[in-house]
Amino acid sequence: MKVSYVLLAVLAIGCGGGGGDNGYTTSPNPTPNPGGSGATGSATVSITASSDSYGYSTFSFAPSTVTITKGGTVTWNNDAGVAHNVTFMTSGSPTNIGNFSSGSNSRTFDTAGTYEYHCTNHAGMAGTVKVQ
After folding, report:
1. I need a labelling partner for 14 at 20 to 30 A (CA). Which of 31, 43, 81, 107 fits?
2. pLDDT mean by block of 10 residues, the chain; 132 residues
């Protein structure tokens, strides 16, 4: 019997004592901190090249998701030496970026939303721009 009372006492202490205000509040839908959104006025996406386990070239946008503020600019840098493009799949997106094998291209996003894009030359090469 003593073990049961000790166990209950430990559980009660660990859970905040079994009643009263413990100083913590919970909210089912916490409000995000606007200052902590991580969004900036501009972002840079690199086009990267690597090899898979079979030695085939694989390409990606890095990072695959960027978050910017409304009116911000995203710049895509291609140092891979292979032709890539940025083709948007979301209505209201900026103009697509045609094939380019070096250098950089930028687009400005004036409307809040989520803009998905991909490279039509390489299956699976995709990214997202989130505009707040």
Report:
1. 31
2. 43 42 34 51 95 89 98 96 96 96 97 98 96 97
Distance CA 100, CA 12 (A): 64
Identify the CATH assignment for 39-131 out of 1.20.1740.10, 1.20.1250.20, 2.60.40.420, 3.40.30.10: 2.60.40.420
Token reading at 61: 């946008």
The secondary structure element, H or E, covering residue 4 is helix 2-14
Report the distance separating Cα 86 and Cα 66, nearest Å.
14
Residues linked to residue 51 through DSSP beta bridges, in sequence order: 57
CB atoms within 10 A of CB 25: 6
